[in-house]
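#onboarding

Welcome to the new folks! Below is a worked example of what a typical request in this channel looks like: someone posts a single protein sequence, and someone else replies with the predicted structure as tokens. Don't worry about understanding the tokens yet, we'll cover that in week two.

Example request:
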Amino acid sequence: MTFDQIIKDLKERKYFPVYFLMGEEPYYIDEITNYIADNVLTEEEKAFNQTILYGKDISASDIIMAARRYPMMAQYQVIIVKEAQNIKDIEALSLYAENPLNSTILVVNYKYKTIDKRKKLSKALKNNGVMFESKKLYDNQVGTWLTGHLRSKGLSIDVTASQILIEYLGNDLSKIAHEVNKLQIALGADKKMITAEDIEKNIGISKEYNNFELNKAVLQKNVVKANRIIKTFAKNPKANPIQVTIATLFGYFQKLMAYYYLSDKSKHAVASALKINPFFVTDYTTGAKNYPARKVVQVIALLREYDMKSKGYNSNVSDGGELLKELIFKIMH
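Example response:
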């Protein structure tokens, strides 16, 4: 069952006795758990019928004992188990999952891991409950997710602002959702389109001095702009770690190398093959003009070398700003 289907069923008050939520991406697990915690019971019912347990303090038998109780003056009791990945005998929960109470809604948060799908617990959950695996999104999927998340809130975002936000926050959906909530409050009900200016003003990510703009300066061979951004980064290395900058550049040049081998270089074909927004295809046509394939290979090797140097390997220079200055010079000349 997908996340959207689970939420749809919950909104229609179609409940399952067990929700086993597992996987690497905590955002979806938290969203489902919070919806159940906030909406199944009334405030009055929660006092006697909503329980939160923590995996480091309990065993599977403790969960079973709690789940087999009946609700008091309510149709359901809700039991939420957080940090269930710390329960060593989690497989023993199959004893309850094989025959759960319909008056109990048991929600198990099993973050950052998955259970063995060949064993009894998995089979019991498939028959009598919901077993949801929350998978981490790939970097190239985050933009689509962000657009959909904003649409659900009646908002939209321009392409540059989206790229800046994702570049800064990565693929941590919880962080992105948190910043979006802050933006929504700051912008007010009348503002529906998020721009780079909004992000700079309310989140503090400069629309001019960020990895996205440095990437553009490098591919355009705009030495003056690149040096200006590097100097700004050097003033605040904690906010602009060199490892993140190198990873951003590596991602671009890796795709640029793939671009050379595409037989169809039309806009939509490139966007599909490289898994990028069509808006950014011109970045690759520009990069291909300025960096021949042989140079791209050299750049990728440089990025690997300076990533190691930034981590203290085979380098006497500890200043990230100086290393980045060296690296960008070698890439662009």
